[in-house]
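ARCHIVE RECORD
Type: protein–small molecule complex
Small molecule: heme C
Source of inputs: curated submission
Record status: active
Notes field left blank by submitter.
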Amino acid sequence: MAKLGGYDSYVPTSPMGKFAVTGVAMGGIGGLAFIVFFYFAPAYSFSEWAPEQPVAFSHKLHAGDNRIDCQYCHTYARKSEMAGVPSLSTCINCHRNIKTDDPGPEVQKVMDAFEAQTPIEWIRVYDLPDHVWFNHKRHIAKDITCQKCHGQVQEYVVQKKVIDHKMGICLNCHQENDAPTDCWTCHT
Ligand code: HEC
Ligand code: HEC
Ligand code: HEC
Ligand code: HEC
Ligand code: HEC
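STRUCTURE (tokenized, with ligand):
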């Protein structure tokens, strides 16, 4: 117990101290294993997840080469818990004016879907378990960049998950920035 989280006593004087004590109170050995697991979780490796999407959309082409602002498409990030994926009308706003003679097969799929009013079923890349509560708005209001949590998206041809948001990653940053670390901040 002595060196858990780098603190010497049972008195919860710090967020990590409180975290440790709560964890132990949660169930002795189980709690201890729990803490050890999550405290070291960020060190675990994982393989990048980059699903093939129904349309070959490239962030490099849009956000990189053409410098379109992230929030032009992910409009809700600033306003709500969700960043959201853009609706087809956002795509069409531009694409109705680009290469109108021959938009190419990938853009044609977007046009057809828009005509038929069927949304494109993008495959989720970042997805926390249901018991975790996350909120984009609060983070963006603190000027935390998208790249801090999603990597250099403007360089990716295919969107990929480069950061695995384990609890330790959330907690480390919360501690460093005096953001709340109580369990119910993120678990409801
Ligand atoms: C702000 C304008 C803008 C918006 C919004 C936009 N695009 Fe684009 N898109 C472009 C530009 C510019 C190109 C590059 C065209 C070129 O140089 O051939 C492009 C290229 C593409 C290509 C590659 C076309 C090819 O010939 O390979 C696809 C696919 C594509 N966009 C899909 C989308 C989808 C899906 C959306 C909506 C989620 C979207 N775009 C929204 C401007 C936009
Ligand atoms: C032209 C519109 C457009 C722009 C600009 C754009 N995105 Fe996206 N973004 C999309 C679309 C469409 C998807 C869903 C397809 C995919 O994952 O590639 C997406 C997916 C994502 C995802 C994965 C969502 C998931 O499934 O978990 C992240 C993260 C993301 N974008 C971040 C960014 C960041 C950061 C920027 C700025 C550097 C940015 N996007 C700029 C349209 C855009
Ligand atoms: C503090 C970390 C953090 C920051 C900063 C952040 N995101 Fe996210 N983002 C996440 C997490 C975690 C998820 C998964 C949320 C879930 O599953 O509930 C996510 C999910 C997404 C998704 C998938 C759809 C959704 O709304 O859940 C998109 C798109 C996205 N982020 C785009 C962005 C963009 C664009 C920015 C910058 C304007 C941004 N994110 C900033 C952590 C972050
Ligand atoms: C890069 C730093 C950073 C990362 C990573 C981060 N956060 Fe945060 N988070 C903050 C800061 C700073 C605040 C405080 C915002 C404020 O004071 O309004 C915050 C606030 C929050 C809040 C709102 C708290 C409240 O009082 O309403 C929630 C919920 C949250 N974060 C969840 C998460 C989750 C879940 C993750 C991991 C998936 C995460 N955060 C990752 C920096 C971060
Ligand atoms: C800043 C946000 C944040 C705080 C505060 C937080 N957690 Fe978590 N927790 C997460 C995230 C994110 C995950 C999901 C990690 C993953 O997907 O592996 C998680 C996962 C868990 C799990 C694992 C469930 C599973 O899926 O296996 C348990 C148990 C848990 N948290 C308990 C706690 C307890 C107890 C506290 C308070 C001491 C706490 N959490 C505080 C963000 C947080």
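CURATOR ANNOTATION: Residues 110 and 116 are 10 Å apart (CA to CA).
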